[in-house]
Design a protein that fits this description.
Keywords: Signal. The chain has 325 residues and is of the alpha+beta class.
């Protein structure tokens, strides 16, 4: 295996070459998306991260980390690296009951500004042996100080991605997951975790939260659109110098998904939010922050959460149903 510094020089050359490519809608990532997910527009936030990976590659430019990612708090298997305090820093109202997903309800919500790093071009990402790296390797490649908050976060991400979730006796607590470092990898990981090889019968949804976040205020639910399927895959960004997404599915036939329209009661534009609800939490870890924040215990109620900025939700279309979101 190459020394991390030598490997880094190779990757920088590949990334720099990619920077002279076409506009976002002509990138290999965009063509792949259109081919695999026909009729499904790429979410704007994701398209921006793809373009950023070409114009301002984190493999070329100085890394500034750390950044706040809520992704690790959206998979109950990894509660050891999450806390109520971490969730609160990311925003207000992230977790809620499914009963709140109906027109006319009011939800107090806020989201901190998002700092998801650029998504690497597939050619560059393929050269990084992500599955074999250690936190020390990453610290050396990106000049991250040992003992820093960021290197701790990087270690959490590597452990989550490199460890196979252990089997659990309860179906609601079993989790399938896979990590990816390019858009092509994210889509393939999601389809594989969803259990389908073809994307033509799959829908993709994302929240339309601006990168600058949402201000704290009460929001009225103006519209609710149920999304097809009863088993879904969510892909969340994890703390790393460049974009790493972990796609996971918890349990079998135990989720519902929605698109809801929120309207700030103190002003501001309407925003469409993707939502996933986990219906059976009886096998979940009691230490999962959602329970404390919602005032419930495992098995007492569903746990729903919004999809954060640039995070993706995948599901299987019903026959003759929706074409895209």
């Amino acid at each position: 295996m190459l020394h991390p510094s030598a490997l880094f020089l190779i990757i920088v050359a590949i990334s720099a070459a990619a920077a002279h490519g076409h506009a976002a809608n002509g990138t290999p990532a965009a063509r792949f998306w259109e081919e695999v997910l026909p009729g499904t527009p790429m979410p704007e936030a994701v398209a921006e991260l793809v373009q950023k990976g070409i114009d301002h590659s984190p493999l070329v430019e100085n890394f500034t980390g750390p950044y706040l990612s809520i992704g690790m708090c959206l998979g109950h298997v990894y509660v050891s690296v999450c806390s109520v305090e971490r969730v609160k820093k990311a925003g207000t109202g992230l977790f809620f009951h499914e009963e709140q997903v109906r027109v006319g309800t009011t939800m107090t919500v806020s989201f901190s500004p998002a700092a998801v790093p650029a998504i690497l071009p597939h050619a560059a990402a393929a050269k990084v042996p992500f599955g074999n790296l250690t936190a020390g390797d990453v610290a050396a490649m990106f000049h991250i100080p040992p003992g820093s908050t960021m290197i701790t976060q990087v270690g959490d991400t590597l452990r989550a991605c490199q460890t196979v979730a252990p089997p659990h006796h309860h179906a609601a607590a079993s989790e399938r997951h896979a990590c990816a470092t390019s858009l092509e990898g994210i889509v393939r990981a999601a389809l594989r975790t969803l259990g389908t090889a073809a994307g033509g019968g799959v829908w993709v949804a994302a929240s339309e939260t601006p990168r600058s976040g949402l201000p704290l205020q009460p929001y009225a639910v103006d519209k609710v659109t149920p999304l097809d399927g009863d088993s879904h895959v969510a892909c969340h960004d994890e703390p790393y110098p460049y974009a790493v997404f972990r796609c996971h599915k918890i349990g079998l036939s135990m989720t519902r998904a929605y698109l809801i329209s929120l309207r700030g009661l103190h002003g501001g534009p309407k925003v469409a939010m993707a939502v996933i609800c986990h219906l059976d939490t009886s096998g979940w870890n009691p230490a999962y922050p959602a329970f404390e924040m919602m005032g419930t215990k495992p098995g007492e109620s569903s746990v729903c959460h919004f999809m954060p900025y640039a995070n993706l939700l995948f599901g299987v279309k019903a026959t003759g149903a929706m074409e895209s979101f």
